[in-house]
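Work package 3, deliverable 3.1, input record:
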Amino acid sequence: MKKRRITLKDLANELNLAPSTISRAIANHPAISEATKKIVNQKAKELGFIPNSIASSFRKKKTTSLGIIVPRIDIHFHSLVISGIEEFAYKASYNVTIFQSKDSLDRELEIVRILQTKMVDGIIACLSLETDNYEHFKKLEVPVVFYDRVPENYEASKVVINDFESAIKATEHLISIGCKRIAHIAGNPATSIFKARLEGYKAALTKNNLPIKHNLIEYTKELSYEEGVKCAKRFLKLQGKPDGIFCANDYTAVSALQVFKKANYEIPKDVAVIGFSNYPISKIIEPKITTVNDRAFEMGQAAANLLIRQIEEKNEIISSETIVLETQLIIRKSTKKNIHTNTP
Amino acid sequence: MKKRRITLKDLANELNLAPSTISRAIANHPAISEATKKIVNQKAKELGFIPNSIASSFRKKKTTSLGIIVPRIDIHFHSLVISGIEEFAYKASYNVTIFQSKDSLDRELEIVRILQTKMVDGIIACLSLETDNYEHFKKLEVPVVFYDRVPENYEASKVVINDFESAIKATEHLISIGCKRIAHIAGNPATSIFKARLEGYKAALTKNNLPIKHNLIEYTKELSYEEGVKCAKRFLKLQGKPDGIFCANDYTAVSALQVFKKANYEIPKDVAVIGFSNYPISKIIEPKITTVNDRAFEMGQAAANLLIRQIEEKNEIISSETIVLETQLIIRKSTKKNIHTNTP
DNA sequence: ACATTAAATGCAAACGTTTGCATAAGTTTT
DNA sequence: AAAACTTATGCAAACGTTTGCATTTAATGT
């Protein structure tokens, strides 16, 4: 004989009040006198009343929970974004339900279908690599905010960094320390952010009257460490070797650094290396790697903020909004050519 | 005028059937004829019926969702565990709601309170560093499974690795390659897992007739890279320097490796280094670090599996269960003293 | 003293699904 | 052909909270 949970009605009976009064008292409704609120809350504590939030959600048609779709949780970037989302959501009394698309469109479709069943008040999503149309998101009745990998040619709320400008900044930093032959390890250009980084790289060269040499650009499928090693080795075989390498992420930057180091090139003297994303490894590896802080945590916070604002928006005038976060270049030893450092 | 969502009743009216029949048809109940099931499903698709899972949860008193409490999402270990949980839960049609305790007991208490309101069918938790009693978990009416940092002297379901045995294995590996003066960089012994690693280290020494030297053991608060550097530097100042170092995690292993390398010691010739957890960095850094695979992903899967089994358990005979996962030593260059490698 | 207003509480329906039990129709057994 | 099942469907209540509206009581104004 397991004991039933205490409900509003139990409290009402106990106190000879209407359930509605109890409900309002606990919700701190202004129409209820302070006196009754006090009694109710006291009795609630005494009987160990725990509100049934499912019943509440059901009645109010509001779950105060957000659905998050990420490619994979165990990628550091995404775990930081999720952390930012959770942090903001928690303070706003929302909770966060997570799904991994595993970069599969099929799975993304199924997740969206699950979320359709109305368990969340809003959705934050980073598109899977396979996603090339957004019909499934159109069907959703709740607001959606995309981050990082966002839909193109489709009106939606988004939180992104300015990859193009950031890539220019990074490339120009290499130029500013005297690099003339700057190489680039690129991600898959089918993904907009990697394309933007590539374009930024090219734009910086052009802007500074440096030629774009196609053998100084190497493409990867997924910017893995192993792919980075291959790319760097190809650079190493070139006649005119690069004196600076801008890598589209930090893993490939580590690869480049190690390959050139092993071939007895000095970093940054012979070749400077710059990465992207500020992964933990970038400040541990020797020499520490200059990189672009991609603001993952802040991106999560901004996305949650934007989404919750949209959920709670009274005036439904704004249909979509795009937030572009400012990145910053974190300059470390791998590009400190001209600077004598005496730090221990 | 926003359109209302299609409900079971709408379908029922449309088809001149009772809502109960619709409900059963969609749930594929055996009492419903195949013919009606067909009509119902067809009509459901036609009208775009999406079941309201909140209503269902409310009625069934079952949410098919799990609550996860982790210290921080952006710690690689935990993100791997979460990934394992999500993976298993997804296949079992559960979804996963995440909370970060930020290693704060207060926050853990509040999260438990939130989860109390019955939005989850079960909970997976890694205790916060501050947690020293488990009263708040006792109040929960749903099954709880702990992982990694688990309660002591308290009956509960747990998923852990055998830290003690793993530490013995790691230390004996150092001994097997000829190390005589083995140091240890330890975590905070207040945390059971770090204490177990320390004890395993000591046990291995004793078992192999090596003395336990207290200046060869350095303690850290949180096993950070920076702390690791400090510990390693202290080892470097010793008269009898270590010829092998067993570190309680990979970050401190990287520190040790770099500090000794910088001081012109060769790894592993002069000093061998072994880490713990198999972080990505361990196989990227030069030389790659021998480490203990802590099975984070599998730990998540096992926890989810155990929890869901407990949720769905018909016979409530088993009140708690502990799963100990087998670790494995991943041997890499940082301990390959006697082996000539010709790998490129 | 009576009308008006304000403050506090109660009533009852509603949210969309599920489920035990009843019922109707059809089938088999005797 | 009646009795006993089987099969398929319907009825109606229930889950616990919230909310618009009605009602009661108290307070204020004239």
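Residues 8-51 of chain A form one domain.
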